[in-house]
What does this fold into?
Amino acid sequence: MITNEIQERVRGWFAGRLPEEWMADRPRVTVDREEVTVVLTVPDVELAGGASAGEEAPSEVELAEARAGRAKAFREETREHRMEIAREAQHRFERKVSWGVRVGEREELWTHVAAPVMTRLRQPERLVLDTLVEAGVARSRSEALSWCVRLVGQHEGDWLTELRDAMGAVADVRGRGPAA
It folds into this structure.
């Protein structure tokens, strides 16, 4: 179980270790049993145009491509330094470190862990997965299950956050209990 204290320790370490110029905003640091994911926010792109008569404002496609280019440049320019920081964090926290960047509305994750998860499902649940496979939404039951988990994560995000916070608080109280 990942306690609030562990989350705070990891977030604090990265806040102190990351270069100031990498952060237009506070980094988002997420911790689980296998991985620490650090998503950095860099300044959004500013495209010229639309300021004077006759100039056309940048299209959504142009803006999306400019953000993709900014994310790619940031990834390449910071690679060596990020790898150095990741090695230090992996040694300190015994978890892999994955990176991502947010530029405007675009977010990219790089080199993140895809951990296998095993489960047993009864027929009604298997039928849901098989329907997704047969409809071409997923290529396999495994991919269909992953798709379902992502969908729940997107639509129940606030509830899941509240649940994680409550579990973290319980773990913190247990850690301070009489047996500690």
Observations:
- The beta strands are 28-31, 35-42, 96-103, 106-110.
- Residues 60-93 form the longest helix (34 residues).
